[in-house]
Amino acid sequence: MPDTDALLAALKRAAENPTLPHGLQSLLFETRNVLQAAVADSAAERSRYRALFDAVPDPVSVIAWDGTVLDLNKAGIAAYRRRPEEIIGKPIHVLNPDLPRDHMGPVWDALTRGDSYVVEVTNMRADGTRFPVEVHSANFEYDGRPCVVAVARDLSDRIEADLRYRELMAVIDKGIMVRDAQGRITYANAAAFRMLDVEDGLSLDEELRPGRWRVVDEDGNELQEQDLPAFRALRTGRMEDSTVLGFYNERLRQLTWLAVASVPQFAPGADKPHQVLSLFSDVTELKRDSALFDRVQALAHIGGWQWDAGRGLLYLSDEAQRILGFDNAPTTMEQMLATLAEGDRIRLREVLERTLAGSGGFDLELQGRRADGRLFHVRAIGEPEGEQPLSLHVTGTLQDITERKRTEETLRVQARTDPLTGLFNRDAVLGELQARLADQAMAGIAVLYIDLDRFKVVNDVLGHAAGDDLLVSAAHRITHAVGTEGLIARFGGDEFLVVCNVGDDPARPERLADTILGAFGDSFRFDSEEFTITASVGIARAPDDGQTPQALIQNADAAMYDTKRRVRNGWQAFTPALAQSQQERLRLETHLRRATENNEFHLVYQPQVDLHGGGIVAAEALIRWRNQHLGEMRPDRFIAHAETTGDIIRIGSWVLREACRQVRQWRDAGLGVVRVAVNVSYRQFLGDDLAVIVRDTLREFDLPGSALELEFTERVLIEDAPDTLRTFAELRALGVMLTIDDFGEGYSALNYLRRLPIHGLKLSQLFVEGVPGNKSDVAVCQAVSGIARSLGLGLVAEGVESAAQREFLLQLGVPVGQGFLFAPGLPPGEFARRLGQAAP
To answer: Is the whole-model pTM more than 0.70?
Structure first.
């Protein structure tokens, strides 16, 4: 029997619990007050405690944590109609046989948190009859040990509460169904009708009779009626825990998954249930999502795991079991650790201990061996749940990375190899070059930087497939030329790198360069096309030209660029003078970037004249650059740099607007209609919405489209894209004249020329300068003139410098020319003066 102080403390805590009914609180307070009064009489303390304990009108029992009844008052003895020795010292199941085995778990959990615990159960008398009670439990100290005091209130007369209970069942979103002792459905709420898709007005009992529905368990096994939870509860008199069942409607051909729990109910004085209540929820979507989740885990090779550290229990999902190679699911962490390699086993055990100690989660890659001997690699991720050590869980995922690990070695090799040519790639050659430069035993290193001449033209005209074939062929030729004398890499695009040791052969880099250039002597073929591709090579040596990979490659690149700019199909060794040239080019680009903002550009206008009469019919706007540090700069000095840096787009926009402004000024001066031709860069054509810019500029200066001519390079002819055709059509609709500049220099195709809505061609100065003496130039001029005539296009000859050239062009039928024979590029004022002299 617990001492009085413990009982007083227990009753006080129970009475102060705000969740207890007021009547019960008052009763417990009264009990406590009576016991307090009894303390004054220490000799009668035990008897008074018993008197007060027995004075409580409701059954009060003292229960140990394991469920053993330690004491019971007189009201309890009377209610259960049993002798004290039949109850005290016996499990609580004597009074309530329907309690689950682990019934004390929820009670313990609630009381440990400082809450009281209230539950409705059905108690049994000695004769087997039942009566419903509401049990309130609280902490209590009995004979110096913690236990539970439970007060049971008889609910047999709770008719009004039962009515409210029925109302609740009608509106709750869970399905509720009541069957009588014969299994007939006597009540079902609206949610039950909705979940089972039974139409209003129909009998649920009739709808659920065998033959109209088939019921299966989660494994797909069909169940008979007597196997359903409600019928089992009626038969055994025990509650059936929640079970997931599939209900298949034969008429609708529809499967609904329900989680069903059934509770038998006993009438007062009965020993057998007179009805059973079933509570169920629709888990169809949850079941579907669970199946999908399992499928996703299998497809992604990711499984889940959870470790209950307090009880030492391990749970693995099906996919996690498959990954680790378990036929039967392990139940402890030690079983899973046993599959790992020794080092990884130690690592995982250590991080689990740190996780339990509160250090956070972990992410590890582990190796092990399955039961069949096969190796596996997994990525294990875990993180803690909960805060109390005894309730701590560690949850995470296992991802099968075996295949990834198998391919990693292959990927390491591939990471150093160019996939197209099979040569070393950029990163690999940089690493090799760094290693050679760091090796003191190496007696000199040289780098050859190789760039294919006019590769982009072939790639653009014949397509990327031809370009790739060309790169592969070029790689083979370079490999054959270099042999074992150097390390070869594709450095990027159409650029290759050769690293060689000079050693006792100082001339090796130059000799290899000559051999490589010789390898490009034969033409390349793609399908029926044959074309010539040459190479430009730059050479840099360590340590004179650089002591780091970056410096050597940069200087070899500079030497290659100088070769390409001057002669192509040659090689150039890096020199201090070349370094100076690089600095000058950088200086040029720096000033060029600021030239527009500093108003350093101006335009001159070269007349286009009628070759018959000599009258001015138009002008071409030519840009000039005057910089206070660099002096007067002609376009051939800076346009290529602007193309490379992208500044050409900004410069081109300035030229277009300045030319239109000048035409507006000449018109306002009464000089008549003057058409000015403006060159449009290929990058400008791709980078801007050219038609919109031209339209807005013409509108700004109130000019008709006929006042402007745009000259494009042949490169736009190969842009057979819808956007290109649309831009040309929009420009032509504005009235702007469209011309292909320097026709014949590139790789134009007549098919493309026919499709674009252009007005004319410009015959390149490259061919005009050789007539009439050079037969090849004469043939090209005749061909271009014939093309223009056959397609109905205008033709302008550039670079006319002699009377003999003019006469030849007249005989060829070329109507318009420009060149020094008539005038160089003229300042706006001088051009206006000449235009005024020519006016009637």
So the answer is: no
